[in-house]
Amino acid sequence: MKKLIVMMALLIILPVTSTASDNGCKLKYREIRANAMISGKLKDKQDIDYYKVTLKREGKLTASVRKLRSATVEILDGLCFNIPERGSLTSKAATLGPGDWFVKVYSPQRITGKYDLYVRFKPGEREEDMEPLMGSSALPEPDSGDDHSNDCGHTTEVFMESTATGVFHDAKDIDVFHILLARPTSLTVWTKGKADTRGILKDSFCNPVAADSKSGINKNFMLKANLEPGKYFISVNRESGNIKEYELLVRGKRFIPREKVQKPLSPLDLTGKWKWSKTGKSNTLNLPMNTLKGTADFRQSGKNVQITLSKKYRFSGVVQGNVLSYKRTHSKGGTVIKEEVKITFPTGAKGTGISNWTITNKKVKGQGIDEYIFNRAH
Q1: Residue of 142, 164, 274, 364 with fewest CB within 10 Å of its CB?
Q2: Cβ atoms 55, 97 nearer than 8 A
């Protein structure tokens, strides 16, 4: 009887670790990077969100959920089994090997709403000798008080069209985020709230690119910059006051660098004198194709252009955007030549074009191509 009582007491004292597989993690999940901040939402009382993290080496994975009361986070293995972790209900950490892992967010009290999930990875062979990815500062431990790195080491990743939350824990606290741009981007970042903020945009070497403190609403900063692809850091700090909480918003759109833009005249006006040259080549005829040169006179009325090469050669074309196209047929001594010409004027001062032509007479029939170059005559 005493032995039975002791066994029952042990069962009450010792924690029970669930080994059941959570099959839902493989059915619906979102892939995220190992160092990222994700905004999510539990939409109904039964909602559970899963995130897949792929690790390429051994290290310590930390997952923390903030903002939503009673939200709980768990770390699952590649088979969706719950694994031993350390931490609290809102923040878990585990030493993991390479492979796929899942992070589970849910509310045991079935409370709905928005939350922020912070996922951080610290690589290392063993937990006691893990080294940072870059820079000097390490990631804050779960519930250590600081929610974001104070410099460009181990920063929280943000994404386009995302919102992150932050808290200034003291007057000297700085929160640093990073974003990865895959293409040229017109980036806008700003804070929202009652805190008096200052923002600094930095390049991949943590050198300042732009700074602002007053361009946003109230005392919030707003930064705008056209950036090439790469990694950029966003540093946020408090300028004055005691308000600690803020939201960081990230928006952007693709832009084309100015030197790559070809601006046609609007509307394209080709009226005037043009110098031209033409080099032809025949596909089917054994004919001498000499380079011809001359001066053309363009007279334009709306989209219609009349082109005069000489008194005998006059024809008309139509301008669509920055392309002049025309067809002409001319004959001499029983020989008929038909041409279809397209000339592009990217700047309105120079044009290059191709003419596909056919020739027919009593003895010969064939095809060829003429290449045109037009330059405005000064």
Answers
A1: 364
A2: yes
